[in-house]
Amino acid sequence: MTRTTTSTRHAARGARRAGLLGALLTAVAVLVATLGLATAGSAAADDTAGATPPGAAWIRAGHFVPGFGAARVDLLPEGSSAGAPSSVVMSPGATYGDMTSYQKIAPGSYTVQIRSSGAQPSTAPLLTRSFSVTAGSAHTVAVVGNASAPRLVVLGDDLTPPAAGSARVRLLDASASATSLDVAAQNGPTLASGAVLGQVTPYATVPKGPWTLTLGGSGATPATQRISLESGNVYTAIALDSDGGLRVQLVTDAAGSAALPAGGAATGLGGLAAGAGTTAPSPLVAPAAVAALAVLAAFGAVVARRRPGRVR
Question: DUF4397 domain location, by residue (predicted)?
């Protein structure tokens, strides 16, 4: 009778331990599966909303005409019209000196239209320009010139990163007060000599670091301005009229060695959106797995210490 009772008690203990172990394993499996699904779902969502589409192009817009007034900038795919779902309002009211962020678009043919800010899309545009973009290219659509004769230009933006320790910079002359503009770095390179309103210089490679620029020329009051160029970056320096003098507005075209536009923004045009195509693993997965293994190890140790005696 005693042997039978003891055997029954040990069997019950073993059954309870086996049941507990089974429940623990099931819980751990559910936890790991849940985390895995959450991570996969997150990756899928990121891939859908933020994947960099192959063959995209980049576009931005700038207003560089003093006295022109606030302007609405519309970008239209070929065959589209302003206000249509496929069109993009690059800026509802750009003013002198404004530059939009880059937007990602599909390669193809486009038309950019300029209207007064607040004007309806159905009104006739003040300026219009058609152009084409290719995969991997970057462009700036700019309103340049003076208020009596503004014009639209499409600039090619070379975002190739410079060598380490250097930066690349070009100058866009948007000053109506200087009939001929000179811009040079003190003890450094000359960015522009005799530039005229609306002119854009080629990119120049210069050493990184702080620079003091000297601005002057015919009809302009000389000025100096301090700028800082970071290693690996690409810039456009815009010469603007400011309170009867001159100033430089430094715009970062691309930052770092990736040769990607700075300030890229989603457009919705042609289903394209800005973002990276890679997704980092969830930071919860590794700690959860470690914790699960620790629990299993602890339970195994308990089972080993409390192993039921042999039934005789």
Answer: 58-184
